[in-house]
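WARN retry 2 of 3 for item q-0093 after timeout on previous attempt; input resubmitted unchanged.
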Amino acid sequence: MVLDRRIANQIARALEYAENRRRGEIDAPDGTAQTSAASGDNGASQLVPTPRPHPFRDPSRFTFSGELAGMARKNGVPAYEQLVQNVAPSTLSRLANLQTMSGRPFDVYGAYNPDEHADNSAHKLGKAFDINLSTSIPERARLIEDATRMGFAGTGTYDENKPGIRNPGVHIDVGRQRSWGGHTKKTGSLPTPGWHKAAIKRGLAAGEPDMEAIAAKAAAGYPIFRRRGQ
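OK item q-0093 returned
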């Protein structure tokens, strides 16, 4: 699935909306103005927005492990900075929106890596992510369904590497439409399991996600208010 210009514009508007909420340029969800002075204190008790971290610096949304954390240690560059430096903003936006859509933290253990993957790997191009999610098949199926809707056409799971042992990893990328259920150097890609295929089919049938709803969810709680001086 390739996002058309209209969807790309929706994503851009969603990010702009969330950023304006963060900056305090749009009223809070309950209608409270972003800045309101308490009478008699010359503004000393004004309500002001509390800064929120960038999505990839917010541990309640993203953590980093595996080869991505190893590259961070090796290069002396934080994992989130490696993402910013080596992954296209549009691809990062899709990942951030997918996390919002999911409603649960993502542990990213693989992303851009020029050294540890095959020559045709989307990881070498900064177009792929590996996420530690859960051994639960329904939870991984839901992520694959949502990722397919968000425009991640390539999806991979790894249960077939060791039959009978569930692997929590899910690969997603913005390459061509394809999927697999495991991978070994000897056999290459292994067959995609039925539940994985069904999740892709549901995602394709559901079509484009509601970006306005995702933007509203991302902006919920922006800003968090505190009293000036606190």
